[in-house]
Amino acid sequence: MMDPSILIELKSFKMPFGKYKGMPICKLPENYLVWFKSKGFPEGKLGMLLNTMYEIRLNGLEDLLVRITPPRS
């Protein structure tokens, strides 16, 4: 069973580096996630979130994120 807090993090956690720095993980382009899949996801939390977003896109489950509202900073 997936931890629902991961869905919140997919919308609130921002890419910390690269071309898409500052973009929420859930908004990253599919080709960027596919590239990470082929090269290897980073270690730790970032890698877990990128892999989770990849799997959500791969399986057409983006609707899981529609009603999720990240906490305000």
Summarize this entry quickly.
The chain is mainly α and 73 residues long.
Describe the structure.
- The structure is a single chain.
- The chain has 3 helices and no strands.
- The chain has 73 residues and is an all-alpha fold.
- The protein has one domain.
- The longest helix has 15 residues, at 44-58.
- The mean pLDDT is 91.
- InterPro entries: QSregVF_b.
- Pfam families: QSregVF_b.
- This is DUF3820 family protein.
Oligomer: single chain
Average pLDDT figure: 91
Tell me the overall shape: globular
Q: What string gives the helices and strands in order? A: HHH
Number of helices: 3
Helix/strand-derived category reads mainly alpha
Q: Tell me what portion of residues adopts beta-strand conformation.
A: under 5%
Cα-to-Cα separation, first versus last residue: 28 Å
Q: Tally of extended strands? A: 0
The major beta sheet can be summarized as:
none
How much helicity do the residues have?
40-55%
- List low-pLDDT spans: none
Please give the domain count.
Answer: 1
Tell me the radius of gyration: 12 Å
InterPro entries: QSregVF_b
Pfam family, one: QSregVF_b
Protein name: DUF3820 family protein
